[in-house]
Amino acid sequence: MRYLSALMLFACLVWACSSSEEAPVAPTPDVTPAPDVEPTPDVEPTPDVEPTPDVEPTPDVEPPPDVEPTPDVEPTPDVDEDPDTDEPNDLPEFSDVDFPPRKLAFEFTRPPVGEPVPAEDVTAFTERVAAALHDVGYFRWLLRTSTGVDPSTGYEDYLAWHRDVEMVKEGETVTFRQTGREHNMWIHSSKVLGAVMGAYLHTGDWETAKLTEQYCKG
Description:
Layout: H1 2-19, H2 119-135, H3 138-145, E1 147-149, E2 158-160, E3 165-170, E4 173-178, H4 185-203, H5 206-217
Antiparallel strand pairs: 1-2, 3-4
C-alpha cells in the first residue's frame, strides 16, 4: 500500500514539472549601427620619372712616361784599418795593474800654464786648509756618513757619496737615513775621491788613506 502511494506521488511530480511554462527571456537591446566611413580618396598616380641621361665615358688616361732607372752606385772602397800615417797617437800607453789599484795604469803629466804660483804660497795655503779640515774632523765625518758596504758583511767593501740622505736627531743621537735612489752618484763621488786623494798625498793621514781606498773600490 505504501509502495503504491509513493509511486502515485512521483507520477504527479513528473506531470507538474512537464506542464509548467518556461520563464520569459529578456530581449537583446538594440545595437547602434556604426557611422558611415568616408571612402578613401583616389590616390594620384606617381608621375613618370625621367630616365637618367647617358654618362659620358671617362677619357683614356695616358700612361706615365718611362722612368729612367737609377744608375748603379759605386761601392765605398774598403778603408784600411791601420793606415800608415805620420800622425802621433794621443793615447798613453797602458799597463796592467793589480786590484785594488794603487796607481794609474798610465803615466800622466800636465805641463804648467801661465805664471806659476810660488811654492811657499802653495804650501802655506794647503797647510791652512788641511788644518781646518783636521780640526773639524771632516775626513772622519766622511768615513762615518758615506754610503757603501762594510767588510764585516763578507761582501766586497766600498764607499760612495749619496745625496738622498736625511739626518734625524733624537736626543744626543743623529741617524742618517737613506730616503731614495741616487742618480748619477759618481758625479759627486768623483769630487770626494779627488779631494781625499789629494789630502792623503799631502798629509799621509790614515783617514784620508782609508777614504781613498774605499772610494776607489766604489
